[in-house]
Amino acid sequence: MGEMIKFKRPDGKEASGYYAKPSAGDDAPGVIVIQEWWGLNDQIKGVADRVAGLGYRALVPDLYKGKVTLDMAEADHMMKTLDFGDATNQDIRGAAQHLKKTGHKVGVVGFCMGGALTVLAAVYVREVDAASCWYGVPPEQAADARTIAIPFQGHFARQDQVFTPSQVEAFEAKLKEGKVKYELYWYDANHAFGNEKGHFYNAEAAKHAWQRSGDFFARHLK
Predict the structure, then answer these.
(1) Which of 29, 68, 161, 182 is an S-S bond match for 221, by CB 3.0 to 4.6 Å?
(2) Exposed, middle or buried: residue 174 (CB in 10 Å: 0-12, 13-18, 19+)?
(3) Domain count of the chain?
């Protein structure tokens, strides 16, 4: 089980997040875990615990500053009012700098809204060494995917209505164009197939995606 901690953003302001450490303690690579649009809830804390179980220090920055919801309309509102630039360049970058203090590599993994932010982090946060994105991409004008200079992995769903296959295909075309070192996987599943508390949880797809994410981080962070 992890705990809530405070860390500094590049602008000097304080941020908080959920921190889970592996059995090896603080001498391990780090992984930033980025929330879905629901906020820093028990489900995403469980994801951080799972990442810690794989041998990483996991940190989930609290992008909504304490707000959590179960209501879809409210989640949509909170996501739409989130300043993605600030979240990326301050909260996520601050989390990366915090985890980097030990001298180890740092990865990032995010889901849904957090998947889109994972792409932004891969483009803008220089402290990140590898990125694994689950079913989320940012608007094309928000980040030039061709400029990603770190290993990148994507997990996407063929039945996704939120981040549609055509959006993902356009995104992949940019990765190819930029000669990004990437791997991309498709699952016969719906959006948010990895969220075991959600309506569209798909155990089979989630199992494969976790296996691939674990292998990816082991190759690029350890």
Answers:
(1) 29
(2) middle
(3) 1
The CATH number for 28's domain is 3.40.50.1820
In the sheet that holds 3-8, the strands lie side by side as 3-8, 14-20, 57-61, 30-34, 106-111, 130-134, 152-157, 182-187
Stretch (H or E) spanning 106: strand 106-111
Per residue in 159-213, pLDDT tens? 999 999 999 999 999 999 999 999 999 999 999 999 999 999 999 999 999 999 9
The structure tokens listed for 190 are: 């719906």
- Cα–Cα distance, 52 to 162 (Å, whole number): 29
Q: Which residue has the tokens 């979240």?
A: 87
pTM here? Answer: 0.98
Per residue in 109-161, pLDDT tens?
Answer: 999 999 999 999 999 999 999 999 999 999 999 999 999 999 999 999 999 99
Structural domain that includes position 46: 3-221
